[in-house]
């Protein structure tokens, strides 16, 4: 199969626009060959993950681009970084000096390249992003899953470097999730038999996502029986959980996500799994490595907390203070933090003992201060990664359970909730 | 000899390491040691450095290419990766590492039948054109 390239593409490949654009073009062409694409398609937006430092290779790559004439072709937003540029004390350098220094440097270099420094894994919460049917290039797994599924924009998972390459070239391989055929669901999860009350709980979206991702792997699943009241926060929870426990880049929710007006509209045939109470209990067990008991910390905001989640948190706290000594962190973006601050919520949460870090998340190393011992989270993605990355024990729970536990200083289980750990 | 589909070419050889489940090269893997960290992974603790890694598919984070590139930079990456489901991100990490550091990692894909056959070998070599051969030690 041969790949159609135009004169501009060939000029870049030949190095006539410099070594940086040549490398970018080579990465896009390599990906096109590996995806069996016959042509490239223009993309209008990029969200890059390459600003998230994983080692010196990240710094070397963006330096190579800057020193060799790289120019972005499209609006390009940034994922969160490893460190917070707003609060350098959050990830103390002592924990891992080279890593912390490199992480800040790579973020500054991507801003220098011309990216809009949004520093968030939930760019879909900000205004001005892509719309239904737009072709885009996104790297971070939850953002890929959310943009494809909840927004109906079209991207493959263009991980580190390839995301930047697409943003420089302004094109992506026309293959996979850019095509109608690639967006068909290949397996079906039916939640229709579960009681309504269950499907309305915020914890349900996380557990369902974890379960679906486990089975789906990299396939596109469709889910039926989701509540008509499913919120953007629920869509975020499912999107991030399926991308963590599996490699799901697109899922459909019949009656809930924009391409799935009906099952027939998206289902291309395949296995059908009936989701049972046992499946969700098993997911809960997999996400909770800790026994219930005294609590050291609570970590919320994976992916970044939305403005509606801040409203829920303030309502659940109801003016109470969290137990002294307990660390309570809520990760979000600068933009959402500013919106919450304008409503007075950041000050109110501060008085209660809650910190709201920006630019970062808390589940990966080097360790954010206070992330030790037994930690509670309401996020399936956080609970999936933190035990391995931080060596902590995780008690997974609903948002209400996290708040009540933080006030009491020990894991509290909601008797009204249907999941028994 | 088995012919594979070349996703990123390199001539390599090494001992076989078979993964029972997909691995993400970020979050589940430490590039500075080459060891699998993920508590959910059946091969937790295994070191991938210098191996020919047999893994049906990749999974997880968009940071995976950075993880593999950094591991290549430090000499802690697999020498080669043999997949069943073609993957774009591992090849990208290997391509960038080759441009920046002059050393890479072969990434190839084979059929399920060939994958099962290759799992019986103790050592494998991969040529730049994707020919895979069992090596006698």
The proportion of strand residues of chain B reads 25-35%
Q: For the record, what is the CATH homologous superfamily label of chain B? A: Phosphohistidine domain
For the largest interface, the chains and their residue counts are: A-B, 48 and 43 residues
In terms of per-residue confidence, which ranges of chain B show pLDDT below 50 for 5 or more consecutive residues?
Answer: none
Here the CATH topology of chain B equals Glucose Oxidase, domain 1
Major beta sheet of chain A, specifics? 5 strands, parallel
Estimate the global geometry of chain A from the Cα principal axes.
Answer: globular
- Residue stretches of chain A low in confidence (pLDDT < 50, at least 5 long) are none
Number of strands of chain B: 10
**How far is the first residue's CA from the last residue's CA of chain B?**
17 Å
- Helicity range of the residues of chain B? 10-25%
**CATH architecture classification name of the largest domain in chain A:** 2-Layer Sandwich
The total of helices of chain A stands at 16
Instruction: Please tell me the overall pLDDT of chain B.
Output: 93
* Beta-strand proportion of chain A: 5-15%
Short description:
The complex is a heterodimer of chains A (421) and B (137). By secondary structure, chain A is α/β, with parallel strands linked by helices.
Question: Which features would summarize this protein structure in a list?
Answer:
heterodimer; A: 421 residues; alpha/beta; Aconitase, domain 3; 3 domains; five-stranded parallel sheet; 14 strands; 12% strand; B: 137 residues; Glucose Oxidase, domain 1; eight-stranded mixed sheet; two-stranded antiparallel sheet; globular
């Amino acid at each position: 199969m041969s790949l159609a390239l135009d004169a501009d593409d060939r000029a870049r490949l030949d190095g006539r626009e410099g070594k940086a654009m040549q490398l970018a073009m080579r990465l896009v062409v390599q990906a096109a060959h590996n995806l069996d694409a016959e042509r490239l398609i223009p993309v209008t937006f990029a969200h890059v993950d390459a600003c998230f430092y994983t080692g010196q290779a990240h710094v070397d790559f963006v330096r190579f681009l800057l020193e060799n004439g790289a120019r972005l072709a499209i609006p390009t937003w940034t994922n969160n970084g490893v460190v917070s540029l707003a609060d350098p004390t959050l990830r103390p350098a002592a924990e891992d000096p080279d890593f912390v220094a490199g992480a800040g440097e790579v973020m500054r270099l991507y801003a220098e390249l011309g990216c809009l420094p949004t520093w968030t894994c939930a760019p879909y919460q900000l205004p001005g992003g892509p719309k239904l049917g737009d072709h885009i290039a996104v790297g971070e797994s939850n953002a890929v899953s959310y943009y494809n599924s909840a927004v109906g924009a079209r991207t493959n998972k263009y991980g580190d470097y390839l995301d930047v390459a697409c943003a420089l070239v302004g094109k992506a391989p026309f293959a996979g999730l850019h095509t109608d055929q690639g967006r068909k669901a290949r397996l079906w999860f039916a939640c229709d038999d579960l009681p309504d009350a269950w499907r309305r709980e915020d914890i349900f979206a996380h557990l369902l996502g974890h379960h679906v991702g486990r089975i789906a792997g990299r396939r596109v699943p469709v889910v039926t029986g989701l509540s008509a009241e499913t919120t953007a926060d629920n869509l975020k929870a499912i999107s991030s959980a399926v991308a963590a426990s599996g490699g799901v880049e697109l899922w459909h929710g019949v009656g809930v996500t924009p391409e799935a007006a009906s099952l027939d509209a998206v289902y291309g045939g395949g296995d059908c799994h009936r989701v049972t109470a046992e499946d969700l209990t098993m997911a809960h067990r997999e996400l909770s490595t800790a026994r219930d008991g005294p609590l050291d910390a609570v970590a919320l905001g994976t992916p970044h907390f939305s403005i509606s989640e801040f409203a829920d948190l303030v309502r659940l706290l109801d003016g109470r203070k969290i137990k002294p000594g307990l660390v309570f962190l809520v990760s979000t973006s600068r933009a959402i933090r500013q919106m919450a601050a304008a409503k007075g919520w950041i000050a109110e949460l501060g008085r209660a003992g809650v910190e709201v870090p920006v630019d970062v998340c808390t589940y990966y190393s080097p360790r954010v201060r206070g992330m030790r011992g037994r930690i509670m989270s309401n996020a399936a993605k956080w609970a999936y990664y933190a035990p391995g990355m931080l060596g902590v024990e995780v008690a997974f729970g609903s948002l209400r359970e996290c708040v009540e536990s933080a006030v009491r200083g020990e894991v509290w289980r909601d008797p009204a909730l249907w999941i028994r750990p | 000899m088995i012919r594979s589909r070349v996703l990123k070419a390199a001539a390599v050889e090494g001992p076989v390491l078979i993964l029972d489940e997909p691995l993400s090269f970020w979050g589940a893997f430490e590039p500075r040691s080459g060891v699998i960290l993920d508590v959910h992974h059946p091969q937790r603790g295994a070191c991938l450095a210098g191996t020919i890694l047999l893994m049906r598919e990749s999974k997880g984070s968009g940071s995976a290419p950075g993880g593999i590139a950094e591991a290549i930079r430090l000499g802690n990456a697999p020498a080669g990766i043999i997949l069943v489901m073609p993957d774009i991100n591992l090849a990208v990490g290997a391509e960038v590492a080759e441009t920046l550091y002059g050393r890479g990692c072969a990434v190839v894909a084979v059929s399920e039948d060939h994958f099962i056959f290759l799992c019986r070998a103790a050592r494998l070599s991969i040529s730049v054109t994707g020919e895979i051969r069992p090596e006698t030690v």
